[in-house]
Amino acid sequence: MTQRKPAGMPIGNWVEAQILQAQREGKFDHLDAAADPLEGIDGPYDPDWWLKKLIQREQLNTAPVLLLLKREVAEFHAGLALLGDEAEIRAAIAGLNQRIREANLSNTAPLCADLGEIDEVRTLRTWRQARAPR
């Protein structure tokens, strides 16, 4: 700091001008003790940033159980042709149906309350038709 503050200039303005000049000259670049830049500082303001970071960091699941089960049932039906035999399908259906019953009994929210059990007979019929030679 070799310059003196000009008379009549507020000290805050003078200090800010010194900092900006040093930045332009690159005096702050590549400092050993420089901190990492803050993640997301350039993005739009989000008042729930800390909650979203917590959910991401702790890998928390915020979706209702019945909604997750709906997705799992859809994935089960989509991958039905990949299952090997009827015993495997029956076991998967029994497990899913048990979890659906438990979730429906414990559900207090009206969201996703329409999840019914998987019809084993219809599902096996669909599986057999998909595997039948054409």
The parts where pLDDT drops under 50 for at least 5 residues are none
Number of strands: 0
Bin the helical content: 40-55%
Strand content: under 5%
Helices and strands, in N-to-C order?
HHHHH
For the sheet with most strands, the description reads:
none
Q: In angstroms, what separates the terminal alpha carbons?
A: 87 Å
Q: Supply the helix-strand structural class.
A: mainly alpha
What's the number of helices?
5
Evaluate the radius of gyration: 31 Å
What is the residue-averaged pLDDT?
84
Outline, from the CA principal axes?
elongated
Explain this structure.
The chain starts with 10 loop residues before the first helix and ends with a helix. The protein contains five helices and no strands. The mean pLDDT is 84. The protein is elongated and about 90 Å long. Helix 3 (65-78) runs antiparallel to helix 4 (86-106). The chain has 134 residues and is an all-alpha fold. It has a domain at 65-131.
Descriptive labels:
single chain, 134 residues, mainly alpha
Annotate the secondary structure layout:
Elements: H1 11-24, H2 49-58, H3 65-78, H4 86-106, H5 120-131
Summarize the structure.
By secondary structure, the protein is an all-alpha fold.
